[in-house]
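A.,

Following up on our hallway conversation. Structure tokens first:
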């Protein structure tokens, strides 16, 4: 029997306005259960200040120090506040992570391919909208083709493929006056690519509600 893969998904930690009790609970849970993969889908900080990214880095380093070595992190709209370029530079330099990361990990004999997409489009304070850019699609295509070359098309086809985004790719059952800011533009193009490449799982954050959808391309 194939051993299951334990993925821990956390999001919207909002360092700078964080809840220490919740952070401690996450740390203790991760330390006790040693997930195979931790996916963090944006809004690492409340306002993209370097001091808050420093706090986030210390927290992630604790998880790594407790044996959770496979951690994939992407930015959210709160990590890209004014001006976007300088804010996201804090993300890359302080956390030491790519805006659109990719990783191939072998877990319990199974290939896992994890690809991150930066959907942030914030240029001014409180602009929470997102977008799937042409550049992001090109990055996805480039990285998946590289894996097909290095691993072989059959291994990529049979791998567990995970996409990380921050904003919502589809509507959610939530009534909110800011609902239009939850989703990202060109989400149809994103989902079309995901179906074409037989992606198994899309993880996102933004709205602080736990929701699970199953989509069938047929």
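Then the amino acids I'd put at each of the 218 positions:
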């Amino acid at each position: 029997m194939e051993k299951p893969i334990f993925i821990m998904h956390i999001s919207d930690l909002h360092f700078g306005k964080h809840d220490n009790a919740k952070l401690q609970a996450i740390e203790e849970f991760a330390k006790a259960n040693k997930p195979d993969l931790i996916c963090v889908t944006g809004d690492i900080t409340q306002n993209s200040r370097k001091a808050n990214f420093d706090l986030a880095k210390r927290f992630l380093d604790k998880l790594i120090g407790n044996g959770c070595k496979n951690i994939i992190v992407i930015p959210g709209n709160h990590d890209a506040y004014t001006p976007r370029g300088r804010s996201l530079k804090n993300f890359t330099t302080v956390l030491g992570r790519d805006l659109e990361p990719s990783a191939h990990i072998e877990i319990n004999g199974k290939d896992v391919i994890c690809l991150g997409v930066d959907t942030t489009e914030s240029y001014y304070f409180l602009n929470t909208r997102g977008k799937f850019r042409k550049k992001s699609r090109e990055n996805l295509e480039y990285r998946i083709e590289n894996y097909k070359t290095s691993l072989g098309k059959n291994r990529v086809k049979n791998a567990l493929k995970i996409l990380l985004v921050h904003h919502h790719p589809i509507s959610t059952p939530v009534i909110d006056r800011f609902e239009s800011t939850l989703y990202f533009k060109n989400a149809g193009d994103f989902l079309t690519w995901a179906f074409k490449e037989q992606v198994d799982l899309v993880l996102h954050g933004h709205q602080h509600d736990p929701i699970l959808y199953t989509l069938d391309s047929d």
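The beta strands are 7-10, 37-41, 71-74, 102-107, 110-116, 130-131, 160-164, 184-185, 201-203. Curious whether your intuition agrees with the design.

B.
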